[in-house]
Amino acid sequence: MAHKSPYHCLIWIDHRQARIYGVTEHELTEMAIIHGPDSGHGHVHHHSGATGSGHDALSAEFLKVVTAAVHDCTEILSAGPAEAKYALKSYIAAKQPQLDRKIAGVETFAKTGDRDLHLFASHFFHRADRMRPAAS
User: Fold this and answer.
1) Residues contacting residue 1 through CB under 8 Å, at least 6 positions apart
2) Distances 117 to 4, 45, 59, 84 between C-alpha atoms, Å
3) Which pLDDT score, from 0 to 100, does residue 64 have?
4) What global pTM score does this model have?
5) pLDDT per residue over 41-51, tens digit each?
């Protein structure tokens, strides 16, 4: 049986990994875990004296794999605790403009557990769905 992509998709991302979830009103289904190249190092390297945050940029290959994992989703929420969610959004805008139109939001959220993550994502998508004009 072929896998059907979810309508709502949550990408929870930080510098070490991205977790891709399908989101419905009643369920959060983990679809993929993608590990970044820095996985296992414990922290992001900070460059002394660098302008900006001083953190290494996320790997383009990591962002490419994450992007490919959500290409069939209809609506996407990118979330995470720091800057990785914005790096992903910028990468998608530059490399996949048709996918960029599917991004419903970029939100800060520290993952505390699947239950909290599901509540956060389902509330976000519920609000977004209510804002959309009704189909005629």
Assistant:
1) none
2) 22, 27, 25, 17
3) 96
4) 0.79
5) 444 444 455 45
